[in-house]
User: Which sequence fits this backbone?
């Protein structure tokens, strides 16, 4: 079970964007994810008249390693570690390690 999923609110704990918060837009692979407003780079784009694209310099969010982000706990407003717990009916749910509450996503 993935501890960080698409749509989760995360905070960056390491790297150039340390302290920033954002929403996970997508998972690239098993260890990398794209977070809104984090790891933004300038990309030079060549114009493509066939697709109607204009050229220039655009901002693009690049993938960040999931080890550099923490799931944001809404109760505390800080990043928190996540564990997996099995309920009585057999479902697996994500829980915050600090207070044991379920992650609602």
Assistant:
């Amino acid at each position: 079970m993935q501890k960080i999923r698409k749509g989760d609110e995360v905070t960056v704990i390491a790297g150039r964007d340390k302290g920033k918060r954002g929403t996970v837009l997508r998972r690239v692979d098993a260890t990398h994810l794209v977070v809104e407003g984090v790891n933004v780079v300038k990309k030079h784009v060549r114009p493509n008249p066939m697709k109607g694209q204009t050229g220039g310099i655009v901002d693009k969010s690049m993938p960040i390693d999931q080890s550099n982000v923490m799931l944001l706990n809404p109760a505390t407003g800080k990043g928190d570690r996540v564990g997996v717990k099995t309920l009585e009916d057999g479902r697996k749910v994500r829980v915050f390690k600090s207070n044991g509450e379920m992650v609602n996503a």
About this structure: Residues 9-47+57-96 form a domain with the SH3 type barrels. fold (CATH 2.30.30.30).
